[in-house]
Amino acid sequence: MKKIILGAVIACLPFTSSIYAQSQPQDGGTINVVVQPEPPSLMIGMYSNATTQQVGGNIFEGLMRYDKDLNPHPLLATAWENSEDGKTWTFHLKEGVLWHDGQPFTSADVVFSIDKLLRETNARLRGSLAFVDSITAPDDYTVVFQLKQPFGPFIRLFEVGTTPMLPKHIYEGTDYKLNPANHHPIGTGPFVFKEWKKGSFIHLAKNENYHVKGLPHIDELYWHVIPDAASRSVAFETGKIDVLPGGSVENFDVPRLTELDNTCVTTDGWEFFSPHAWLWLNNRQGPTADKRFRQAVMYAMDREFAKSVLWNDYGKIAKGPIGSKTTFFDKALPDYEYNPEKAKALLKEMSYDGTPVRLMAMPYGETWQRWTEVIKQNLEEVGIKTQIVSTDVAGWNQKIADWDYDISFTYLYQYGDPALGVSRTYLSSNIAKGSPWNNAEGYVNKQVDEWFNEAAVAFPDSKRADLYSKIQHQIVEDVPVAWLMELEFPTIYNCKVQNLVDSAIGVNDAFGTAWIKQ
Amino acid sequence: MSVQTLLYIGGRLVKGAAVLLVIAIFNFFLIRMAPGDPAQVLAGEAGATDAIFLQQLREQFGLDQPLYYQLWIYVSNLMQFDMGITYRQQMPVFDLIMERMPATLLLTGAAFFLSLLLGILAGVVAAAKHRRWPDSVITVAALIFYATPLFWLAMMAALFFSVYLEWLPSFGMQTVGENLTGWQKISDIGLHLILPASTLGLFFTAVYARMTRTSMIETSRLDFVKTAKAKGMKPSRVTTHHVLRNALLPVVTLAGLQAGQLIGGAVLTETVFAWPGIGRLMFEALFQRDYNLLLGVFFVSSAMVVLFNLITDVIYCVVDPRIELSK
Q1: What is this model's ipTM?
Q2: Cys-Cys with A43: which of A182, A184, A213, B59 at CB 3.0–4.6 Å?
Q3: What's the rounded mean pLDDT across residues A1-11?
Q4: What letter would DSSP give residue A98?
């Protein structure tokens, strides 16, 4: 069988030096980072909370890392091949990798992690594993995935947040959720867990036996829990904090902080997630059930204004369901420009009777509160009566999950491929009460369903691209949800920290390669 | 202490336990009236989930059981002094509360004594210099601190002392990563304590100052004070031994109320200064719908209120021997 070699060429080079050659890194030093909110656990295999990934991504590792264009690079896997029919993937593992407790990392760990543990505990991976027929380990350093059909997104499943490698010798045969190692995580990553003082800080230290020679450069890593957004800004200003990961301070503090001396800022490191914000529009009832009303909402919104005032011009206006940094984004989509007149015309055409709509704010901080006010004003300007509804996170989750809303906000990650992060919002098979992260708007289009299902398993990629183009044009016409922006969360940091963000998941696996300029 | 007093205290303790049980049951229903549940919040932070995961979490937390059964489990565990496991951290609630207790006690205790000391002192001075400039200064200052929102005061203090002057740390309880010991550690914690304790204490200082002042002025007009002055006693002794002692009763009442809140902590102060105390724990548990943890904090705080009410009543007798404890 002829095989396509993908990873072997760059396998011998560490990730950083291949892409971002910089001046000679220096060893040593401590980095202080903010972590908000305090994670429930660092056990990345069972909790995929954003901050669990941020801290845990430095303790655990996936088989691959991804650069900003979402190309895979070797980490625990040194090379991989796909068979010609696209159904067999063979991974070659790195030899001589040790778990933090000294045990060797082998193919048995990979099979156990994916086939047993993560299949049971990781909701996001479970969906993708439905395409996998078998996972086997012919020898200690080879793993073979036999797929039922070719699955396009397969190669993008192996970052640490989606598929972290977990130690078989610790978890096998135990109740995963109650395993004491959850409180003292053991991974293969560049940092080992030291201490977690609940409510104060998490301490990680350099892994002296790390499998990439010369890394990590940093000696100590402290993640500080500071619950108040303004206090996080102050902590950075006083120099006690070196890194504010994207989204950890309020947007209105960003311009002030970035102007401080010796302060650097980057919006890189979100390519894999590509957070996509939109308004849920309840397709089932009320005015929002009418396509013309939903289109009117698109024309009524002054998204440029929101972007410049609320987001300090970071981010991009979203054109449709797929983010522009995600694969298969169609550049030729029509625009919904800011055009109140068109919105009014559409409302007139559907003879909108002035039924008020409820606009539920998202309780994720000041920016979202203000965005709600902006949208309300936009909608009222074209004659849509709007009432703002406020609630807390739990209440908001519940109301969306119970479909008890007219319009509300959300933003979700795209995970690098429409089959992983986009289709879930629009597939009618994904309509189910009780979850706010599925097709909560109630959009039903059988044609779109068919295309999505075909696109997930089409082979090769050019076929997928055609299908995703059709999908995007159809969905943009139907406006099941009103897309707002592709969000960018600037990471603000002290300029002494070098090479901070060098992968598509940003600070989540940043500190293994970062260093401090003395 | 007389037998009667001990009997009284015993009786109060029994009553208190009954009150606590009622409070616990009431709280149990109260927090379940809030929309949403811990599984959804926990899964929500992950940004992606499915029905299986939510179901797994609910089973793990026991939330799939009927409500009356959950209540039964909770109350019977509580009777055995078991407060359950937190949903989020997967730790015993009692351990987590105990882990946070010292930080809270240090902060609220320091603020308590600081405000009591400063407040009574300021009140006595203001009353002694009634209608003269020290009185005006103290009254105006007390009014300002009384009326200023705590979080704003805290932010301003952090900006001024930490960012501008660079004298004091702006967050946390100790310098992380220096492994200080002995006196160095104590002074490090003390340094971190100054800002949160004084912002928290200022409000109560103002309350005590106003209370003491008013009470002092009223008492000093009573006949026995005249008698004391008439028999030639030194004015300072009249103030401390006759006026102050009688004027203190309302202050003790108020201090008892504040002491009851010592465990509940200070949500705002702990949040702004990232102080790892119980107030924050409770606040976060509320938003995360961590029922067990929230009920645990509620329980411990209500136990403290019951206890401190009793202590206050006992202190009344010490301050004013005319008051007797009886059923």
Answers
A1: 0.84
A2: A182
A3: 42
A4: B
Distance CA(A46)–CA(A466), nearest Å, equals 36
Give me the count of residues in chain B: 327
CB of B182 less than 8 A from some CB of A: no
State the DSSP H helix or E strand holding residue A133, giving kind and residue range, or none if neither: strand A132-139
Overall pTM surpassing 0.90 (yes/no): no
| Interface contact B100-A199, CB threshold 8 A | yes
Burial per residue of A258-279, b for 16 or more beta-carbon CB atoms within 10 angstroms, e otherwise: eeeeeeebebbbbbbbbbbbbb
Q: Which chain A residues are within 8 Å of B176, Cβ to Cβ? A: 32, 200-201, 203, 222, 224
Confidence (pLDDT) at B48: 61
Q: Which residues contact A304 (CB under 8 A, 6 or more apart)?
A: A317, A338
Size of interface A-B (CB pairs under 8 A): 166
Tokens for B205? 């200082």
Domains in chain B (CATH in brackets) are 101-277 (1.10.3720.10)
Residues of A in contact with B89 (CB under 8 A): 40-41, 198
Mean pLDDT of chain B: 86
| pLDDT band with cut points at 50, 70 and 90 for residue B1 | low
For tokens 């009786």, name the residue: B11
Contact A424/B48, CB-based, under 8 Å?
yes
The C-alpha atoms of residue B127 and residue A363 are separated, in whole angstroms, by: 48
Cβ–Cβ under 8 Å, residues A40 and A52: yes
Are residues A394 and B176, on separate chains, in Cβ contact within 8 Å? no
Closest CA to A489 of A315, A281, A328, A341: A315
For testing the chain B interface, which of A34, A51, A117, A231 should be mutated: the one with the most B CBs within 10 Å? A231
Distance from CA of B49 to the nearest CA of A (A): 5
Give the integer Cα–Cα distance in Å for A313 and B184. 47
DSSP B36-90: S-HHHHHHHHHS---HHHHHHHHHHHTTTS-HHHHHHHHHHHHHTT---B-TTT-
